[in-house]
């Protein structure tokens, strides 16, 4: 019997080591998207945190826009809850500006203005991770290099993205459909959310294979929205079923792929692998987000 146990354990370990790995990140703390009636920002955060704990997830960064706390002070409870659960926070600028709409200098001030809130909650811990709003990294090379230079000079690392199915698109329709009590529509949202997440596993794995000839350690972009909170247990189950295990952002960014800087000015931004493909003049794999269908639902 002992031999069988050893053989079996060996097999299980080998299987786990050969799968894809992914870090999960949440943007826009304390508030993202519309809320269904009677749901609060704190409930959304607590639901996500409960799932992360139940699923024994490694640390998950929440990227903050402190303007939300300034405009709605009671929402600071979201940041408190995130930290009380042992999850780290990172910088997503003060008010989520588009880098394509402001100068590099104004954008850098936005990053700096967000820092006191990070220092308050992440005292003594590593909060020097930066996530670009909208994944816009600069429409000109000059602007891109200026901001990246500022970030490096201030000790920041860039929280890259290499898995993104547009999770945020479902939050507003979910709030509308909930307000109408349209359960059939919510079932359709549920199904299309998981189907789209699944499609983009294939899209980003293909892109990764085209640029790096392998699976990179992926980094998933999520948002702190009500539907994201509701769907998180099933989303994690989907990724596990597709062979993913979960790692921290720090662990993911040890992948040498993230040392690659596409070093191009691109309007509309994109995930790291998308920009690498733009640099190499490769065509991004065919994909479809149901944004137009979602926009029409429960109007
Ligand atoms: Zn954002």
UniProtKB/TrEMBL annotation:
- Which keywords label this protein? Hydrolase, Metal-binding, Signal
Entries under InterPro entries matching the protein: Glyco_hydro/deAcase_b/a-brl, NODB_dom, Polysacc_deacetylase_ArnD
Q: Which GO terms describe its biological process?
A: carbohydrate metabolic process
- Signal peptide extent: 1-23
Domain of life according to the entry: Bacteria
Query: Domain NodB homology spans what residues?
Result: 18-140
GO MF annotations, alphabetized:
hydrolase activity, acting on carbon-nitrogen (but not peptide) bonds; metal ion binding
Pfam families for the chain: Polysacc_deac_1
Q: Name one GO cellular component term.
A: membrane
Signal listed as a keyword: yes
Q: Please name the SUPFAM superfamilies in this protein's record.
A: Glycoside hydrolase/deacetylase
Task: Name the PANTHER family on file.
Answer: CHITIN DEACETYLASE 1-RELATED, GLYCOSYL TRANSFERASE-RELATED
Q: What is this protein identified as?
A: Polysaccharide deacetylase
Species for this entry: Granulicella tundricola (strain ATCC BAA-1859 / DSM 23138 / MP5ACTX9)
């Amino acid at each position: 019997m002992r031999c069988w146990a050893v053989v079996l354990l060996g097999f299980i370990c080998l299987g786990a080591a050969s799968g894809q790995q992914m870090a999960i990140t949440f943007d826009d703390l304390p508030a993202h998207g519309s809320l269904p009636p009677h749901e609060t920002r704190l409930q959304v955060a607590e639901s996500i945190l409960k799932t992360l704990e139940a699923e024994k997830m490694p640390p998950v960064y929440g990227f903050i826009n402190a303007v939300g706390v300034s405009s709605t002070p009671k929402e600071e409870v979201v940041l408190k809850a995130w930290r009380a659960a042992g999850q780290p926070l990172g910088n997503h600028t003060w008010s989520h500006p588009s880098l394509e709409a402001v100068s590099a200098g104004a954008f850098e001030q936005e990053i700096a203005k967000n820092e006191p809130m990070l220092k308050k909650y992440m005292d003594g811990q590593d909060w020097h991770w930066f996530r670009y709003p909208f994944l816009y990294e600069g429409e000109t090379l000059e602007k891109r290099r200026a901001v990246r230079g500022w970030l490096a000079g201030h000790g920041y690392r860039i929280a890259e993205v290499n898995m993104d199915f547009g999770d945020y698109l479902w939050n507003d329709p979910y709030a509308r459909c909930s307000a109408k009590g349209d359960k059939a529509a919510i079932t359709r949202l549920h199904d299309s959310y998981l189907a789209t997440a699944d499609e983009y596993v294939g899209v980003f794995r293909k892109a990764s294979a085209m640029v790096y000839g392998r699976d990179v350690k992926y980094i998933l972009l999520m948002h702190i929205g009500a539907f994201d909170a509701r769907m998180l247990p099933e989303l994690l189950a989907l990724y596990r079923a597709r062979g993913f295990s979960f790692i921290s952002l720090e662990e993911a960014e040890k992948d040498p792929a993230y040392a690659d800087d596409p070093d191009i000015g691109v309007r509309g931004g994109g995930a790291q692998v998308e920009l690498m493909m733009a640099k190499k003049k490769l065509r991004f794999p065919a994909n479809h987000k149901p944004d137009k269908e979602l926009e029409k639902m429960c109007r």
